[in-house]
Amino acid sequence: MKRLGGEVLTTENAREFSSTAKGETLEDSIRTVEGYLDIIVMRHFESGATRRAAMTANIPVINTGDGPGQHPSQALLDVYTIEREIGKLDGIKVALIGDLANGRKVRSLAYLLAKYNDVKIYFVSLEVVKMKVCVAPGFRF
């Protein structure tokens, strides 16, 4: 961003040091900061917060991590890397391995890969950390 001539407005720990800690709503905070910005790139501890911000803001909001929910920017990078390395996305087979119950990155990647044709996604984990059906509706386990 800085190399392109832009500037960054950051918060170290908004949960502890911002007006939110004093009771201001996320929506009020977004209305305040959007006056200084052209785009909001947001990582938030609360699931669904980025969607709320996008519904409130009159400028674009990019989700870079949404509580335990989603991490779509990482999924976009992963899909880009897969396409660059394999040369295609349609018809691939992918295994997502590890803590699938709490992994927002794998959840976002699964949603994105499911948009392509004939992609097979294998969810591999211990029973205690398997992806919950309610988290991945439409997927067969």
Automatic annotation (TrEMBL):
Domain Aspartate/ornithine carbamoyltransferase carbamoyl-P binding, residue spans: 1-83
Keyword Transferase appears in the UniProt entry: yes
Keywords attached to this entry: Transferase
GO terms classed as biological process: amino acid metabolic process
Keyword flag rRNA-binding: no
InterPro entries found in the cross-reference section: Asp/Orn_carbamoyltranf_P-bd, Asp/Orn_carbamoylTrfase_sf
Pfam hit, one: OTCace_N
PANTHER family on file: ASPARTATE CARBAMOYLTRANSFERASE, ORNITHINE CARBAMOYLTRANSFERASE, MITOCHONDRIAL
Protein name (Swiss-Prot/TrEMBL): Aspartate/ornithine carbamoyltransferase carbamoyl-P binding domain-containing protein
